[in-house]
Amino acid sequence: MTDFHNGALAGGLLKDFGDALARELHLTPRYLPVPRKRVEAPLTSGRADILCDLRPEWLEGKDWRWSEAIFNNRQIVVSRSDTPAVKKIADLSELRTGTILGYRYAEVEQALNAHFLRDDALSDDANLAKLLRNRFSYMLTNSLYYDYQRKTNPGREHLNPQVFQVMSFDTYCALPPHGKLDLATVDKAIQALKKRGEIQAMMDHFRPAHGRD
C-alpha cells in the first residue's frame, strides 16, 4: 500500500492512486505521513485536503464527506502452503490467530466470541513474519496486501494461494466539510480513472500473475 524512504512516501498503491487523482484534478500532490491513530488530524486542521483508502466506520469524525469507492478489498484468513486453508470462521476457534493491534474483526468476534484467540502485532508485516516462522498457522489480513506479498516476499513459495474470505469491502476518500476540494469534482475524477481502467491496472501491478484465483 505504501513504501516510505527516509520518512517520505516513495511508492505503493496509495501513491500511484494519489498521483493519478492529482493529475486528473490538474493539481500537484503533497503527501503527509502521520501515525495511523492521528490520521484525521490533518483533515481537521486543514493541513490535508483528502484522505483515501478508508471507510466511515474506521474514523472517529462523522462529518467527513465521502467519495465514491476507489478500491475493492477483501478481509481474508491466510496460511502457509503446508497448512490447509480454513473453510469457515469456526475453524479458527481456539487457534491463535495473527491480528493487528487495535483493529476490530467484527465478523470473527461475533462468530467466535471468547474462542477468538488474537495474537496482536503492530503491522501485517510483523504478522506475516510470525506466520512464516511457524509462530501460528493463520492470520487475518486483506487481499491487496497478501497478493503483493505472494508476488514479492522472499518466502512467497511458502504462502498458501488458497485463502478464506471473511468479507468483501470497498474503501473511499474522506474530505473535510469545508475543504478546498469539491466532492463532485473528485468523484468525476475517480470515475474517469475507473473508466480508463487505471485503478484496476494499479491494483493488478501489485498482484501475482494469478492474484485473483
Poorly predicted parts: none
CATH topology title of the largest domain: D-Maltodextrin-Binding Protein, domain 2
CATH superfamily of the largest domain: Periplasmic binding protein-like II
Oligomer: single chain
Just name the CATH architecture of the largest domain: 3-Layer(aba) Sandwich
Termini Cα gap? 20 Å
Mean pLDDT, nearest integer?
90
How many DSSP helices? Answer: 7
Query: What would CATH call the class of the largest domain?
Result: Alpha Beta
Which overall shape is indicated by the principal axes computed on the Cα atoms? globular
Specify Rg, calculated over alpha carbons. Answer: 18 Å
Total domain count: 2
Largest sheet: 7 strands, mixed
Number of separate strands: 9
Order of helices and strands, N to C? EEHHEEEEHEHEHEHH
The SS-based structural class is: alpha+beta
Please state roughly what percent of the residues sit in beta strands, choosing from under 5%, 5-15%, 15-25%, 25-35%, 35-45% or over 45%: 15-25%
Helix content: 25-40%
Could you name the key traits of this structure?
213 residues, D-Maltodextrin-Binding Protein, domain 2, 2 domains, seven-stranded mixed sheet, 9 strands, single chain, alpha+beta
